[in-house]
What we know:
There is one protein chain. By secondary structure, the chain is mainly α. The protein folds into two domains: about 5-45, no CATH class; about 45-165, no CATH class. The chain has helices at about 5, 10-15, 25-45, 45-50, 60-65, 85-100, 105-115, 145-155; strands spanning about 120-125, 130-135, 160-165. It has a three-stranded mixed sheet, with helices on one face. Helix 5 (about 60-65) packs parallel to helix 6 and helix 6 packs antiparallel against helix 7. The longest helix has 21 residues, at about 25-45. The termini are far apart.
Amino acid sequence: MQPAEIALLLPEIYRRGLTDGSVLDGLLNVMAALHGSLETAIADPALLADPRRAPDRLVPVLAAWVGLGRYLQTDPGEDRPAAGDLRELTAAAAALGRRGGSAATLRRFLETATGVQGFGIEESAGRPFHFRVSIPAAALPRLDLVRRIIAFEKPAFTTFELAPIPDAGPHQGS
């Protein structure tokens, strides 16, 4: 809403006294600026609900709405998903929630939250309800986050162990 449009809503006595540079003119400009940000926000409601397009400050709110708040409330020194990873994780949260409890879902959750591909999940043949998560070397700096994700997203009756995947490095020619 522009200052002139707001002025039309004022009683006539105020409109007659409105001049450029007056206190009332300044107030109308401030009101227009405040309305401008709101009008921009409501012009495209999908912008506010789409984690890939929402403003940075809104993404944690959207993440909390879809049940990812536990990964945002961390103690000092604990890792949390990076901003871009959090956007993707929030966008995928509903689909991940519908398929929760499977190895494929846990793998996708870990890869999306860390931004690193290549996690492996294997069930233990010798220990019922136990599985092993192989962690790519690139995800090792995010080990704290990986542990928390597995603890929250695994089936309650299961146990797990973590194993780093050795970095293959460059291959030697023969």
